[in-house]
Design a protein that fits this description.
It is a single chain. The chain is of the alpha/beta class. The protein has one domain (3-211): 3-Layer(aba) Sandwich (Rossmann fold). The chain contains six helices and nine strands; from the N terminus they run ββαββββαβαβαβαα. Strands 1, 2, 3, 4, 5, 6, 7, 8 and 9 form a nine-stranded mixed β-sheet that branches. It binds guanosine-5'-triphosphate and magnesium ion. Guanosine-5'-triphosphate binds at residues 17, 19-25, 50-52, 76, 78-80, 139-140, 142-143, 167-169.
């Protein structure tokens, strides 16, 4: 549940997925591409040879017409298997999740294990997985060894989650993935927090303001 206090509403969003799938790269590209009213620096806590050991954090936000400050805190978890405790801590109290899968055929098992871990960790930290906004991004589309899009679509077509195909290295579909999450997030929480009636934000205004589009 987003935190509302002192005239601000804060959403915690988590990029989750297998080691080296491109979660940190997603945040770096978002930082370059977005221009919301408020955009902080990326904080990378403890990295070792480019691998996240704790988490990364990108804060951004904007003010709604009502004056309410809407903030987003984008986190990445460490994907390496050994850091499951940290993953749980970062996942705790998440309001939305981008699952970043690695399109490399050789990563299929790691993707599946990481997704299974996500479902289990949600339950361990008391998150209702079924009702948590989620989008699935298949990253590294540029790899020659990438599993074909049609095959991935066939496998995921029965699931309710938006599916995106990205190349975080070049930034392709990185903003679109975040936008897809923002839309699910709005639909999930707009009623509860009266975003339209009290704060003057419809879905498009919410998304445009978060991304910083004119
Ligand atoms: N070819 C290709 N490489 C990518 C892409 N996105 C990220 N990478 C590379 O994959 C490696 C891992 O990327 P990270 O963003 O650090 O991955 P991560 O998911 O944060 O990894 P952990 O922190 O260990 O969980 C880096 O060398 C990136 O440059 C992509 O779209 N295509
Ligand atoms: Mg990382």
């Amino acid at each position: 549940m987003p935190d509302q206090s002192d005239g601000r509403l804060t959403f915690k969003l988590v990029y989750y997925g297998p080691a080296q799938g491109g979660k940190t790269t997603n945040l770096l590209r978002l930082h370059d591409a977005l221009s919301p009213e408020m955009l902080g620096e990326i904080q990378m806590l403890e990295t070792q040879n480019d691998r996240t050991l704790f988490f990364d954090l990108l804060p951004l936000g904007f003010r709604a017409p009502s004056g309410l400050l809407i903030k987003f805190r984008l986190f990445t978890v460490p994907g390496q298997v050994a850091h499951d405790g940290t993953r749980k801590a970062v996942l705790s109290r998440a309001d939305g999740i981008v699952f970043v899968a690695d399109s490399d055929r050789r990563q299929e098992t790691n993707n599946a294990e990481s997704f299974q871990g996500l479902v289990e960790n949600c339950s361990r930290v008391g998150l209702d997985f079924e009702n948590t906004p989620l989008v699935v991004q298949f990253n590294k589309r540029d790899l020659p060894s990438a599993v074909p899009e049609a095959e991935i679509c066939a496998r995921w077509s029965a699931t309710p989650w938006p599916l995106l195909f990205a190349s975080a290295l070049t930034g392709e579909q990185v903003v679109e993935s975040f936008e897809a999450l923002l839309r699910v997030l709005y639909r999930r929480f707009a009623g509860e927090f009266s975003l339209m009636a009290t704060h003057g934000l419809d879905e498009d205004a919410f998304v445009r303001s978060a991304l910083g589009c004119p």
